[in-house]
Design goal:
Number of strands: 9
Shape: globular
Strand content: 15-25%
Radius of gyration: 21 Å
Order of helices and strands: HEHEEHEHEHEHEEEHHHHH
Helix content: 25-40%
Distance between the termini: 35 Å
Oligomer: single chain
Number of helices: 11
Largest sheet: 9 strands, mixed
Structural class: alpha+beta
Length: 325
Amino acid sequence: MMTTDHIRRLFLEFFKSKNHKIVASDSLVPKDDPTLLFTGAGMNQFKEMFLGRNVTYRRAASSQKCLRTGDLNNVGKTSGHHTFFEMLGNFSFGDYFKAEAIAWAWEFFTAVLKIPENMLWVSVYKDDKEAYSIWKDSIKVAPARIVALGEKDNFWPSEAPSKGPNGPCGPCSEIFYDYGPAVGCGNTGCSPICDCGRFVEVWNLVFTQFDRQPDGSLKALPNKNIDTGMGLERIASVMQGVKTNFEIDIFKPIVETIEAYSVERIAYSDKKSNAIRNTQYAIRSKASAIADHIRAVTFCIADGVMPSNDERGYVVRKLIRRSMS
């Protein structure tokens, strides 16, 4: 089995071989950025360099610890939502652009991780003819496995052309792993557009090439940048052949311990708990959410965020309370 640690190491070593500077994960508390409560993406610590300021190197790669609360209510209920996770990413600050980013992503998946090409699909922004051409003509992905989507799905920030915010933005291209027709809806026309569970998005390549103006126009940036993100837990679930992120090597021992404790507690509770005791899904769902929250709280405290009633501390307190409820 390819462990999570091994995948992380392979990723960083691969991009080091492509002349990227390997940058350590930043704190969950963003430095000098009052606009962010927590670090939620690999690009956060490089924001100044994306804007062309203080550029000390042109290529970087990292495994960034991230915390997001937008999907809090879905944690434990789906296969891949988290509050805390690691984001693998490679970045270019005015150096390489679409051709290299796409080629290296494909090389990492097919040559390093040995994922069969026919198990991978891609999506592109509907107006991004350049990215479509690279996938079809250079990488030789069959057109049937290239999906063109609108700005909600394949632009970053999502829907930036029509809704903003102003500032750097660009189209993106996502890579999906296909679990095969035996999974999901079973329809012959199923593609990454479908949310049946057959396809999982594993890597997002963002081509930051525009500066959205106050009038809504997209002005070309003088220096085009690359910002990619691949959830470590998600690609680990693919490589380890499990159905959910909570079954991978770094989650499974935590979840199983919580499950065992939950069953023991239920056995001593009143008869009204029979339905819960007989519903493995309910126990697994709750154990997965607790495991996620434990990790989030642990890393927050390690970065100096203690439970409190204010801002970041309140988030930590809320995660603890949700774990206990």
